[in-house]
Structure formats: C-alpha cells, structure tokens
Specification:
Length: 485
C-alpha cells in the first residue's frame, strides 16, 4: 500500500509539470530557415546555338563518363569509386556526421543511469580524547545501489534546433562526399583522355620518324650520287633527330599520367600498367542544363546551402541560452550498512522532481555567442552565394571554350588538309629535281605542326568537355546521396 501511495504521489506532482513542458515545447526559439536569394539568369549567355544532341538520361544515372564510350575508362572509374583513398576520407567524414546526427536525436530521450558502490566514511565525535580512545569511533560502511532517470524538456526548441543543425551538417557532409567523388572522377577521366591523345601523338611522331628516316636515306643516296649537297643531308638528319627527341619527351609525360591514374584508383604506380590503345574516345555533345538544374545537380552548391541551414539553426541554439532549462528526474534505490539486509524494503529510498535552472549573469557571454552565430550565418550565406556565382562562371567559361575550340578545330582541319596537299606536291617536285631539299623540310615541318595542333585541340576539347560535365554537377543529384543508416 505504501508503495502504491508513493506512485500516486509521484503522478500527481510530476504529471502537471510534464504536461506544461509538452505544451511549451511546441515553440522553438530562433529564425526558421529560408533559402538565401541568389540572382539566377534565365539562361546561360553562351547557350545560344548550343547543340543538345546527347540524351540527358546518361547524366541522370550518374555514370556520365559512359558518354565517352570507352569500356576501359568505365572499368577504371569503377575501381576509383571503390578504392580511391581521398574519397574514402570523405566517406569517413560523412559517417562521423551521421553519428553526430544520431547523437543529437538521442538527446530527446530520457537518460537512465544505474550505479552501485560501497563507501566508508568517518565523522569526528567532537572530543579529541574520545577519538584517541577508540580508533574506529565514527567509521561507517554504506552500501548503495541506485537507478536514476532524467529527461530534459525541450521547451524552447534547443534540442530541435541542435538536431536541425546536425541533420543539415550530415547532408552537407554527404554533398561534400559527392563533390569529392565527382572531382576525383573528373581528374581520372581527364588524365585518361589526355593519355589516349598522347598515344595518338606518339603514333604520329613514330610514323613521321619513319618517313624522315626514308628521306634521310634518300638524301644520303643522292649526296653519294652527287645529285644533292652535304647541307641537304645535315638538314634531313636535324629534322629526324628533332622529331625523335619530341617522341622521347612524350614517354615521361605519358608515364606521369599513367602514375596519376594508378593513384586515383588506389594502386601503386609500380604495379599498374595501361596498355597503348589506337582508339581515342569520341567527343560527346554535352546538354546545356538550366541554372535551376545546376543548383540541384552540383554537390558543392548543395553543401554550401546545407551549411546555411546549420548556421541558421545554431542561431536558435544560441538564443535558447537566455531561457531556463527544465530537467525532470527520478531516482530510487537501496542503502544499507551491511550486505545481509541491503536489498530490503526498509532500506529503500527514492526522489522525484523537476529542476529549473537558468543563468542570471554571465558578463555578456550569451549575447556574444548569439552575435557570433549570426555572423557565422552571414558568412555561410555569402559563401553559398559565391559558390552559386562560381558555378555559373565555370559553366559559362567551359561552354564558350568548347564553342570556340569547335570553330578553331574546323579551321585547323582545313589547314591540315592544305598542309598535307602541299607536302605531297613538294615531295613530287623534289623527286623530280625541281626544288631543293630545304623546301621539303620546311613543308614537312609545317605539316607536322598542323598534325600536332589538331591533336592538341582534340585533347583540349575532350578535357573541357569533362570540366563542363563536372561544372554541371556530373551525374549527381539529391537521390544519389548516401542513404541514412
């Protein structure tokens, strides 16, 4: 009966406090989040005349590198996604953010503590003579076991604002992970495309070296026959050695790209080898997405906005420090001086009640913290707006670069066709003895320069196409963020 009366007393005293706490918890201190205003153009300045030939569903799946139609490239990106150590670091940071968000959610639940222990205490008798006569006077052993429950009522929304900030930070970390993965993928694809163009440049120089070797042999034969002079032989030999030197220079450049790819896929350069290929991936037609799509697709912009949400919530957390905290606690257990009757009804104890606590004076610390939180929010808003503007700038730059390079490539191909025809005619004239070999050397140098210019332009266009895809957010969207555990 005594036990039931205690429970009824607990319910009658604590229930009104809990009811009031629930009613008050409907409010949350601090501003509700609103997306910062950003000037968004209706369309890209360089989008006029842009050819939207490629289907956008390839980008929506996230495997944007498949637009280049190279299976070996696809395999390398798969390895990167699974073994890149920079991405692994970002993934670990994301899991940390997830754990922080789970911890914030746990603050809404009561805390249950269990303790058991033994203490020995002594209290003086008030007489020095008495303490000298008995060394054990006033010493007492106490056995305690206690179960306690405490719960902080989220009256002013402190916990809810904290959870809002933690969730936003988790989402920002997920976007950072997506941005890092996109960055590493972009770097890998760029390196791979440059390497494949370099293979073609090597084949071009090798073919040119073979041609120059034949020209040198022919010139030497003519010199021995007295048809041409020693200067023609020297010119032919100089041309051959210069081209061989250029071909040797490509060896270490290719090795650097190959080593960079090895590190990106998580392998040691010594164990990685990328065989020479005769195929150069085709240049895709990149769809020009609208600015609104850019905001949805770019992970760095998403991360910047999540940071604004977190900073906005932290303002509310800082402002709740002006208001009292209400904690409801319940504790009960057993206390005895002997083991024999430790856990028994006469030795039980319990306590229950609310605790209201607030700071009356702190020398302006709370005001300073609110000012700090508001300044931090202004910083994140400016960073978000700058990230959006940088995104627009990057897209505009790469779009105009691709457009100009396309026009330049057309002119360069026409120049190459003319150079090849000029070389053919010049060689025929030299074989007929109508011109000197110096004329052939000059035309050959011009033709080789045009050949390399066309390949260099192709390499630049391929790299710019990758950069544009990355600037548009690649294959990232909100559905591709790592799911919550």
């Amino acid at each position: 009966m005594t036990h039931r009366r205690g429970l009824r007393f607990f319910a009658s005293k604590l229930a009104p406090t809990v009811f009031c706490a629930v009613l008050l918890s409907a409010c949350a201190i601090g501003p509700d989040y609103q997306r910062p205003q950003v000037a968004e153009p209706a369309q890209y300045k360089e989008a006029q005349g842009w050819r939207q030939a490629a289907p956008s569903d390839a980008l929506a799946r996230g495997a944007w590198w498949e637009l280049y139609g190279d299976q070996q490239l696809n395999n390398l990106v798969d390895k990167l996604n699974n073994a890149n150590q920079t991405v692994a670091q970002a993934e670990a940071r994301y899991r940390q953010a997830q754990a922080t968000a789970r911890s914030s959610r746990g603050a809404f639940f009561p805390t249950v503590d269990l303790s058991a222990g033994k203490t020995r205490a002594s209290q003086g008798t008030g007489s020095s003579n008495a303490s000298l006569s008995s060394s054990s006077s006033g010493i007492r052993d106490t056995l305690n076991t206690q179960l306690g429950v405490s719960w902080e009522a989220d009256i002013w929304g402190k916990l809810r604002r904290g959870l809002e900030a933690s969730n936003a930070s988790e989402q920002a970390s997920a976007a950072d992970l997506a941005a890092m993965r996109l960055s590493q993928q972009s770097e890998l694809v760029q390196n791979y495309l440059q390497l494949r163009v370099m293979d073609e440049q090597t084949r071009l120089l090798q073919s040119t070296v073979e041609t120059y070797q034949r020209s040198l042999q022919m010139t030497e034969n003519q010199y021995r026959a007295g048809v041409s002079g020693k200067d023609a032989v020297a010119q032919a030999q100089t041309q051959l050695k210069s081209t061989q030197a250029s071909m040797i220079d490509l060896i270490w450049q290719r090795a650097q790209l190959e080593n960079a790819i090895a590190v990106l896929i998580g392998e040691a350069p010594a164990t990685f080898n990328l065989a020479v290929s005769k195929d150069i991936p085709a240049l895709p037609q990149i769809p020009a997405n609208l600015p609104s799509q850019l905001l949805e697709r770019r992970p760095d912009i998403a991360s910047a906005e999540r940071a604004v949400i977190a900073a906005n919530a932290n303002i509310g957390v800082a402002k709740t420090a002006y208001y009292p905290d209400l904690t409801l606690s319940l504790a009960g257990g057993y206390s005895s001086s002997t083991y024999a009757d430790w856990i028994s009804l006469p030795n039980r104890f319990w306590s229950v009640g609310p605790k209201l606590a607030m700071t009356l004076f702190d020398g302006g610390q709370r005001s300073a913290e609110v000012d700090r939180a508001e300044a931090s929010y202004d910083e994140t808003v400016a960073k978000y707006r700058q990230t959006v503007l940088d995104g627009f700038r990057e897209v505009e730059n790469y779009m105009v670069q691709l457009k100009v390079l396309e026009d330049e490539a057309g002119v360069s191909n026409e120049a190459l066709a003319s150079a090849r025809e000029s070389l053919r005619l010049t060689q025929n004239q030299y074989k007929a003895g109508l011109i000197a070999y110096l004329d052939v050397v000059n035309v050959q140098a011009t033709a080789l320069s045009n050949e390399r210019t066309v390949l260099t332009l192709l390499q630049t266009r391929l790299v710019a196409s990758v950069q544009l895809i990355a600037a548009l957010g690649g294959g990232w969207d909100g559905q591709m963020q790592p799911r919550e555990e």
